[in-house]
């Protein structure tokens, strides 16, 4: 078995971004959104650095030690290009948040992904 704890934090975040994006799109379609403009508008509630930082804060206290380690490695990565729409800490939190999802995806932990996603975005999903 491959030790994904040694995978580049930025690679994990890259994959995690796709995992989160897919979950968001699925949720929006299941909620009945059909028009692309509305889908994109609703998706922004989930996928911006600001919203992902907020989502991370909602789950930070329930992360396993392993997940927290992945988060820290990604958050502390030196290859971050911070957008103007987010503060440096928001962007770093978002990067760490995405890395957790990428890591869990590589491990095949779908149930944990769904659990964290539901808790992270509880305020938006309810």
Describe this structure in words.
The protein has helices at 9-30, 36-47, 49-59, 65-75, 88-107, 110-120, 122-125. It has 126 residues and is mainly α. The chain has a single domain (7-125), classed as Ribonuclease III domain (Ribonuclease iii, N-terminal Endonuclease Domain, Chain A, Orthogonal Bundle), CATH 1.10.1520.10. Helix 1 crosses helix 4 and helix 1 (9-30) crosses helix 5 (88-107). The chain starts with 8 loop residues before the first helix and ends with a helix.
Summarize the structure.
This protein has 126 residues and is mostly helical.
Strand and helix map with partners:
Layout: H1 9-30, H2 36-47, H3 49-59, H4 65-75, H5 88-107, H6 110-120, H7 122-125
Helix pairs in contact: 1-2, 1-4, 1-5, 2-3, 3-5, 3-6, 4-5
User: What Rg, in angstroms, do the CA atoms define?
Assistant: 14 Å
- State the CATH architecture: Orthogonal Bundle
**Fraction of residues in H or I helices:** over 70%
Provide a count of the helices.
7
CATH topology: Ribonuclease iii, N-terminal Endonuclease Domain, Chain A
Roughly what fraction of the amino acids lie in strands?
Answer: under 5%
- For the terminal residues, how far apart are their CA atoms? 38 Å
- CATH class reads Mainly Alpha
Category by helix and strand content? mainly alpha
What characterizes the major β-sheet?
Answer: none
Give me the count of strands. 0
